[in-house]
User: What shape does this take?
Amino acid sequence: MNAKFRFTLSFTLCILFIICFGILSVLIHYQILTQLDHALISLIQGFESSLVTFVMNTFTFIGSTPSVVALSLLVIFFLYKVLHQRKELILFIAIVGGHVILNQLLKLSFQRDRPNLHRLIEIDGYSFPSGHAMSAFAVYGALSFLLWHDISTRWGRIALILTSSVIILMIGISRIYLGVHYPSDIIGGFLASGIWLALCIWFYQWYQEKHFAKRCKRIG
Assistant: This one.
């Protein structure tokens, strides 16, 4: 995959996420998605059982702040001490740290109340966009990007993407099942985090190419 294609891909994804998030924001502002949100919550909670609740609580815990912090510290240690990847370390910190700030700014901007239909857990704070959804997309998206080049086999890369996708999706669904988020909160979280992730990756790739060009110029 050449540099021009990588730049184009990350930039295109960033613009696409921005457009989709903008459309979703308008739909939420005018309460166009309210009935659909309620219908999807009822559908997902229709599978309620003790086993499903346990599974969903487990995925919610995986996407919680303590779990994300613990995983992030482990990744930071691995990148710094084992792989000695300084630039990748900065990229990961920027993605994980930046999405937290972005989430809080968006929550304060929209100030959407959480659903009050059938809650299986209690939680405070605004609803849109979902912090769990943003964390899952940011952390596992960043991990997939960083590990992609270290996996040489096609099936290994497929397994990486599938595993990350399932974890991200299940964390989002768990928040709907537990009654603390609308489905549109989850989608909004994925889109908002996707904007930040794509933007960080684009800047990282730009920096890499610029640094490589300077090094080639010095050698030449």
